[in-house]
Design brief:
Layout (H helix, E strand, L loop, with lengths): L1 H4 L3 E7 L4 E4 L2 E12 L4 E11 L5 E3 L2 E5 L5 E5 L1 E4 L3 E10 L6 E9 L2 H19 L5 H18 L1
Antiparallel strand pairs: 1-10, 2-3, 3-4, 4-5, 4-6, 6-7, 8-9, 9-10
């Protein structure tokens, strides 16, 4: 979110297979790259292992896809590790198959999940507000007139 973007951390690195890189609380190991074929594209894939502190490793695989048919486009497939308090993004910028080196951008974006949680809270609150009966102005004026008539009758 906007508040979280103030704390966003972004690092770029050129890594060779086996290199490790630190970003924030995360240790990232580049385990080499692959070239894979899809149904209508060829992808270069970076194999990254991400670990937060002593936690379990998580594998992310950012890709660069080349679509040879038509306009010969290249796209980036961002690898995302989404967590409650922050998201980790891995972006493959370039890959050299001869040496196995890769240019990678890593981003840690805090508090992004809270945008979705906040949206859910707003929807839930709206449903509660819509499900409770409301007093309309016409009902209030009728009740007020009835109360005045009762007071006049008692006096």
């Amino acid at each position: 979110g906007i508040a979280g973007s103030m704390f966003q951390v972004e690092e770029k690195a050129r890594l060779s297979p086996g290199d490790e890189f630190a970003i924030g609380r995360y240790a990232v190991e580049y385990r080499g790259g692959d070239i894979e074929g899809g149904p209508n594209y060829t992808a270069t894939v970076a194999n990254l292992t991400v670990r937060e502190g002593d936690g379990e490793p998580y594998r992310v695989r950012p890709e660069r896809r080349f679509y040879p048919e038509g306009q010969e486009q290249t796209t980036s497939e961002v690898a995302i590790w989404s967590r409650l308090f922050e998201d980790f993004y891995g972006i493959l910028e370039a890959f050299d198959p001869a040496t196995g080196t890769a240019d990678i951008t890593l981003i840690v974006n805090p508090m992004l999940m809270w945008i979705w949680i906040g949206g859910g809270v707003m929807v839930f609150g709206t449903l509660i507000a819509l499900s409770t009966p409301r007093r309309t102005a016409a009902r209030r004026s009728t009740r007020d007139e009835d109360a005045e008539a009762a007071e006049v009758a008692i006096a």
